[in-house]
Amino acid sequence: MKRKLCIFTLVGLVAGSFASFAQNNPPAAEATAPASTNEIAQAQPAPDAASATNTPAATSVAAADTATPPAVAATTTVTLQASSPDYAGQPITLTATVAASDHSTPSGTVTFESGGTALPVTTTPASGPNPATTSNGSASFVAEFAAAGTESLTAVFTSSNTGSWGNSTSTTLSLNVVTAPTFSGTIPLSVTVPTEGAFTLTVTPTPVALTPDSTGLNATGTIPNGQIQVSDTRNTFPGWSVSGQDGTWTGSGSAAGGTFPGSQLGWHPTGGTVAQNVVIAGPVTAAAPGLGSATVLASVVHGLQNGFGPSNLGAGLTLIIPPNEPAGPYSNSLTITAVNTN
Asked: Is 86 in contact with 92 (CB distance < 8 Å)?
C-alpha cells in the first residue's frame, strides 16, 4: 500500500513521469493488488502531447469554442427631410436617409406618404417612382401640393434583405404648405386712339301716297321705319339731330293752279331700332303749326357711346286739305335734314 500511495503521489505531482517510472519498476506493478475500476482509471498515465490532440475529449472542446452564433438583422432608422420653403402649386423634393445600427448601408425601397397614403406619381412635375429605390442609403421623391395647409409626411423603408436590415418608418414630418408670394411692378403704357368713323343719313325716295278720308278734308299716310336711316360710327360721339320740313303742295291736271302750304302736314315720329340715348320727337299737329318749317324728328346729345350705330326712323303723316282747293292731284317734297353734332 505504501508503493501504491507513492505512485499516486507521483501522479499527482508529475503526471508526465508516470510512464517512465512504471517502465523502470515493473515488478511493483505486478505485486500491487488489483485496484478498483475507478482507481485504475484515475491511475492511467497522461497521454503525451501527440496523442492528446487526437483524443475525443479534445475534439469536443474545440468544436464548442468555434461555433458561429445566429445572425441578427441590424435595426434601421429613416430620416425624412423636405426642401424649403414649400409653396402651393410648386414642386418640392422629399429626401429619406436610411441608417443601420451596424453602420452598413441598407438597401431597399422608400414609400413617401402623406397622412398614411402614398403620394401620387406625376409627370408634371416629374415626381419619380413611389416607392423609390434607395441609392447609397437614400431615396428622393418630387411632390406638389395644390393648396396651402399642413401635410403630415412619413417615409416607410422596406428592406431588400430582412435578414440584414429591418424595416422602419420615419417620424412624422409636418410640412407647412404656404401660398406663394407675389411680386409685381407696373409699366406705364399709353396710346392715342385716332378719330375714326363717319356719319351718314340715308333717305329712301319711295313715294308715300296719302289717302283722304270720307270727308275729303283729311288724308293720312306712313313713312315706314327705316326709310329714314341714320348711321353714326364716329368714336367722338358728338351727337346728331334729324329734322323734316314740308314744301308747298302744288296741284296738277284738274287741280292745276291749286296750292296750299306745307304747314298743312303734320306727323307722329316713330323709330325702329335706334342707337343709345336717341330721343324720338313728339307729334306735330297738322296746320298747328305743321311742318312748314324744320321740325325735329329724332336727336341725341353728345356723350360717350351716344348715338353710335344705326337708327331707323319713320313717321305717321296727317294732312289737312283746305276745303276751297280744286279737286285733283297734288304733290310736294318732304325734305329730311340731318345735323351731325348736337
From this structure: yes
Query: Can you give the C-alpha Rg of the chain in angstroms?
Result: 63
Which residues are within 8 A (CB) of 77 and not within 5 positions of it... i.e. 6 or more apart? Answer: 98, 99, 101, 168
Query: What distances in angstroms separate CA 311 from CA 222, 224, 233, 240, 306, one per listed residue?
Result: 18, 13, 11, 11, 11
Quick one: average pLDDT of 263-286? 97
Domain spanning 76-177: which CATH class is it, in words?
mainly beta
Which one, of 72, 71, 79, lies nearest residue 168 by Cα? 79
- pLDDT number for residue 66: 55
C-alpha cell at 147: 393648396
- Three cell numbers, residue 320: 289737312
Q: Please give the Cα distance from 219 to 224 (Å, whole number).
A: 17
**What is the full DSSP assignment across 268-331?**
EEEESS--TT-EEPPPB-TTTT-SSS-EEEEEE-SSTTTT-EEEEEEEEEEEEPPTTSPSS-EE
Q: What is the pTM of this model?
A: 0.53
How many C-alpha atoms does 83 have within 13 Å on its Cβ side? 11
* pLDDT tens digits, one per residue of 275-306: 999 999 999 999 999 999 999 999 999 999 99
Residue 10: Cβ-neighbour burial (10 angstroms; 0-12, 13-18, 19+): middle
Locate 49 and state its grid cell.
502531447
Query: Average pLDDT of 72-86?
Result: 88
Could you tell me the residue ranges of all domains in the chain? 2-47, 76-177, 199-339
Give 278: exposed, middle or buried? Use CB within 10 Å, 0-12, 13-18, 19+: buried
Three cell numbers, residue 252 = 296738277
Of the given ranges (81-95, 228-242, 327-341), which has the lowest mean pLDDT? Answer: 81-95
What angle is formed at CA 329 by the lines to CA 327 and CA 332, rounded to 5 degrees? 125
For every residue of 102-151, DSSP letters joined together read: TS----EEEEEEETTEEPPP-TTTT---SSEE-BTTEEEEEEE-SSSEEE
Cα–Cα distance, 247 to 1 (Å, whole number): 183
Per-residue confidence at 84, pLDDT binned at 50, 70, 90?
Answer: confident
